[in-house]
Design brief:
- This protein is α+β, with helices and mostly antiparallel strands and 116 residues long.
- The chain has one domain: Arc Repressor Mutant, subunit A (Orthogonal Bundle), CATH 1.10.10.
- Helix content is 63%, strand content 12%.
- A three-stranded antiparallel sheet has the order 1-3-2.
- It is globular.
- The termini are far apart.
Length: 116
């Protein structure tokens, strides 16, 4: 029950929902997320730490860079919640704007060297 409560609590913040919607689309470094969401690095990092602690995301190191993705070790209700988020929240105006910025960002393909 504690783990389920932690999963749901992590979803109670708008920025974390925005980050999750991006990560549903793939793996990104912090600089990608800050660019797309137009948020400070410290804000994004703080929310990613919460999502990681709650089990929503995992990271991997590649040199100096840390990349985040949706966790592969899903809690039983996690995949269902991700489906619901993708189907329902992605249709909201602000989510559509984020996803459109993500498409433009992918098109411009920043490399980690440009994130520094």
């Amino acid at each position: 029950m504690e783990q389920t409560a932690g999963l749901l609590k992590a979803l109670s913040e708008k920025t974390r929902l925005r980050i999750l919607l991006l990560l549903i689309e793939g793996e990104f470094c912090v600089c990608d997320i800050t660019d797309v969401l137009n948020l400070p690095q410290s804000t994004v990092s703080r929310h990613l730490a919460c999502l990681k602690k709650s089990g929503w995301v995992e990271d991997r190191k590649a040199g100096l860079w840390t990349y985040y993705r949706i966790s592969g070790r899903n809690h039983p209700i996690q995949s269902k919640l991700l489906e619901i988020l993708k189907e329902n929240i992605s249709s909201l105006k602000s989510a559509k704007e984020d996803l459109n910025r993500l498409k433009r960002h992918k098109h411009n393909e920043k490399t980690p060297e440009k994130c520094a």
